[in-house]
Amino acid sequence: MKVNPQSFFNFCSGHVPLLRQLAESEGEISDADARRLIRANVAPEDELPETTWRRLKELQILVPTEPGSDFYFLAEPVGRLLAYLFDEAQAATPEMVRGCIESLAVSGKQLSRAIETDDVAVLRLAMEEIQ
Fold it and tell me: Alpha helix (H) ranges present in the chain?
């Protein structure tokens, strides 16, 4: 079943505390434990716990260990995404983005000049700067 990315990210943005707890749980999670986590993490806009539970399964965030099972695990791609977002991702301000763009523009000009003048040393430095 294909998941709509917009629906997935909208759901995730409204359920960050729940997703953090799911990501921190290791191994299988029972139906009862998942529902307990849902109730402990109040959903946005008075969403019913049953709706949250249904959406976790529909969006393939939680997948059954085997068909018909009452045990679930956090889908591997979702787990990797959450680990990145919670542990590694750095927030970027518009100023940071502009600084990166300006730095790349300067490096691009250096590359152009190095190519025009066949200056291998400057070309190497510009490439290292970009990487």
Answer: 5-14, 16-24, 31-40, 49-58, 76-83, 94-117, 120-130
Which among 30, 38, 13, 32 is positioned nearest to 73, based on CA atoms?
Answer: 30
Task: Determine the residue type at 102.
Answer: E
Question: Cα separation of 18 and 2, whole Å?
Answer: 23
Point out which residues pair with 62 in neighbouring strands.
74
Rounded distance, CA 34 to CA 129, Å? Answer: 47
* Amino acid identity, position 77: P
| Whether the Cβ atoms of residue 53 and residue 38 lie closer than 8 Å to each other | yes
Residue 22 burial class via C-beta count within 10 angstroms: exposed 0-12, middle 13-18, buried 19 and up: buried
DSSP label at residue 42 = P
Per-residue pLDDT of the chain (131 residues; tens, 9 = 90+): 688 889 999 999 899 999 999 999 888 999 999 999 999 987 767 789 999 999 999 999 999 999 999 999 999 999 999 998 888 877 778 888 888 888 888 888 888 888 888 888 877 877 777 66
